[in-house]
Amino acid sequence: MSRINTTGINPKNGEPVEVSYGYDEVPGFTPGYFFQVFSSNEEDIEKDPSGEGMILNEGFLEGISKEELRSLAATYSVSLNI
Fold first, then answer.
1. Which end of the chain has fewer CB atoms within 10 angstroms, the N or the C?
2. Who contacts 79 (Cβ-Cβ below 8 Å, separation ≥6)?
3. What is the spatial distance between Cα 82 and Cα 23, in angstroms, rounded to a whole number?
4. Which residues make beta-bridge pairs with 18?
5. For each of the chain's 82 residues, which pLDDT tens digit applies?
6. What's 72's DSSP letter?
7. Helix, strand or coil, per DSSP, at residue 33
8. How far is CA 73 from CA 5, 20, 36, 50, in A?
9. Where are the alpha helices (DSSP H) in 18-65?
10. Taking the complete model, does pTM exceed 0.90, yes or no?
11. In terms of Cα–Cα distance, which of 62, 72, 77, 55 is closest to 21?
């Protein structure tokens, strides 16, 4: 697994968000990219059962394509390093 951590902008409210993305291969699932977004907004943190403020989790087990990764990165104003 590769994991890159960076910051982005939440398109819904313009607030900064923490973003993790990379490539992963989980045995028994489709390999591919993942894109996760974490908010520091108190309401988002309270809504997330883990308490981490995760507001998006794409490709966690079933990987997404590079095109999907690029689209999500553009939505959250993230410059990819891949």
1. N
2. 6, 73
3. 10
4. 7, 38
5. 689 999 999 999 999 999 999 999 989 999 999 999 999 999 998 999 999 999 999 998 899 999 999 999 999 999 998 8
6. H
7. strand
8. 12, 10, 10, 23
9. 42-47
10. yes
11. 72
